[in-house]
Amino acid sequence: MNPLDKKLLRDLWRIKGQAVAIIMVIALGVLMLVMMGGLINSLEETKRAYYERYRLADIFAPTKRAPNHLLKDITRIPSVASVEGRINGGALIDLPAVTVPIRAKALSLPESGTPRLNDVYLADGRRLDPTRDDEILLLRGFAKANGISPGARLTATMNGARRTFTVVGLAEAPEFLYAVAPGEIAPNDARFAVIWMNEDALAAAYDLKGAFNEVLVSLSRGAREPAILDQLDRILEPYGGTGAYGLKDHPSNRFVVDEIAGLRTSSSIVPPIFLAVAAFLLYIVISRMIQAEREQIGLLKAFGYSSFEVATHYFKFILTIAVLGAMLGCLFGVLSGRSMAVVYQGYFKFPFLVFQVEPRGFVIGFVSSVLAASAGGLVVLRQVFDLTPAVAMRPPVPADFSKAFRFGPVLKSVLDQPSRMVLRRLIRQPVRAFTAVAGIAASVALTVAQLSIIASFDRMLDLNYRMIDRGDVAVSFVEPLGDASIFALRRMPGVIDVEPYRSVSVILRNGRYTYRGAINGLVSTPRLNRAVDSDMEAIYVRRDGLILSKALAKTLNVTPGQTLTIEVREGRRPVLQIPVVGVAETLFGAPAYFEINALNTALKEPNRVSGAYLRIDTAESATIYRTIKDIPIVAGVSVRAETRDALKRMLDSGAGAVRFIMAAIAAIITFGIVYNSARIAFAERERDLASLRVLGFTKGEAAFVLLGELAIVTLLALPLGSVGGYYLSQGLAEGFSTDLYQIPALFTPEAHGTAALAVLLAAAVSGWLVKRDVDRMDLVSALKTRE
User: Fold this and answer.
1) What is the Cα–Cα distance from 468 to 728, expressed in whole angstroms?
2) If DSSP codes are grouped into helix, strand and coil, which group holds residue 114?
3) What is the pTM of this model?
4) Rounded to whole angstroms, how far apart are CA atoms 742 and 745?
5) Residue 569's closest CA among 497, 507, 642?
6) Is 740 exposed, middle or buried (0-12, 13-18, 19+ CB in 10 A)?
7) Quick check: 77 and 227 in contact, CB under 8 A?
8) pLDDT tens track for 212-248
9) Side-chain half-sphere CA neighbours of 473 within 13 A
10) If you ran DSSP here, which 8-state letter would residue 534 be given?
């Protein structure tokens, strides 16, 4: 073995504690890179394969009622590859053990064969018998949540009529990866079902014999989707078309895409931070080694080793640490990714999901770790080239401290000798002190950011259900009704307060910026579902214009004072020009608010409501829900407590769960940085500490000189890291936010306090480990070491 390689192994063993800490920092950075990269790749590939295998449509075009012969006209549109007409209706399921009516979507399947588009994956049982009108397939997620298996009987209300069905199979479908009831935000498997029935049976239930109310379209490669959407709208407009939309606007697909985008953002922010910290630590370690081994470098050059060979020796040291870290990171990244893939498979209802990292994922992990480590070490390796044998074998010129700060009589009387030694070193070597402070501050910032994000998720739920959504129940109707329905709800026993709303499906346009959503018509001073400003104060809903959520205003690139073009997608489908008069702070969704009477006036549909928010006496809730079950005009009931629980589950899984992983990793990083700082300080002062022991200092006094410096550096790093953590948490909050929910970047004292305690605990443990080495120090060997 080459002598320099033998020296390399001895050096690694000598600083094994620091080397392991740096390896772990690199490994964690690569772990996050590989795990997130693999998850992104696996989700995208699984989604693509699932969509292709079960022929998910590219365009969805709902309508009121269109004759089947219209499908031939749609087929003749250029670039249309395949067309499927189907029936899509709402239903309410009645389970004996559940008091709240359960919303369901009923979809038709062809009488024979499989559908050309939007096929289903049969997870259990069998497919429908075309000769039986009472057989259904049921969404597997709902069936599992309610303990329903093939062979069970199910009662549902469709189009005002109650019918009983036999469940013959459990199914999943690519259009229900994110299965959420219309108007809801979070999926709740126990409270939303999808029913598939034979086409003739469902057509009879909704009076659609020889007709359809939704057309599915797949496109040829290279098709221009906007032009085809326009043609579909023109064809379906006489039949009550409500506006065709592409797959990118489909609620389920939109959420999956947003979730992947959130993972991609996190993977671009967090791993580079870890690798940058590793580069910083390597810079300090290599700098210390070169300074401590000046004489050895001089001897190596005197014996004929070139500057390049010596520099290569130290670079091998860097590469060994980087490669070991990258190998561990790749290994544990794959293991962690497989565990997360299982979570995502259940979260998104994929029938299959295999975690797979492309070779480039490992290459990126290795290259990024090596580059980061090299950046930390190459900066100081130039010192090797500058050292000639004669200069290297001489002790370095002592630093001139003649003009340095001196302690006056007052300070000398207050501070003992060890305390003055601690302060004198910090003052005389500010660069070293600053690098130590910066390293620990980085760990504080990471911990603060992760804890703040966890608190922000919880705070988001609390604010939404305490300040914005304050009703107990939301009732939605099958179609907009007169305000007499509100009086009927008010007369129900146990109902304390009723607040009507009108929801209208629209496309909002501001030049080239568009958004497919809804306008929510509220009373001018809402109490149960409010629009609020950034201070969570209620906003007066105005008649003279729209109040947009902050997320929607950003999407449309619009500010108060500008006018939006509103394309209404229901009823007479008017095109309105409405100004924006304000921006509201919302935490879920991207709503637009308008005063309900002004909205009805603009639509020329006075006194219409889509539903109501209720505040009820909880003691009468069971009676209220039973009464609502028997009202045929009710499309669905949303209970605030259940919605909140569903949101909590959603935020604690999927991309939201990544924040817990990053918090755990940040804690490990914190200890690694603090421990490295303590070890480096001990390596730099080992000879000084041995000298103090020889001069009569006790073990405790000698350790105080070292650990006192660590304590001051740690305390100085806390406020700096707290500020950095605040700004880092803003970046992470922006990355986690989607169209579905917006994570507020909050200043939470608890997060900053917990981060400070974590760093202080890491400093205490590191100090104890280093003090143990100080107590065991070989004084003779330490004193033989040259300055």
Assistant:
1) 27
2) coil
3) 0.75
4) 9
5) 507
6) buried
7) no
8) 999 999 999 888 998 999 899 889 988 888 888 999 8
9) 24
10) T
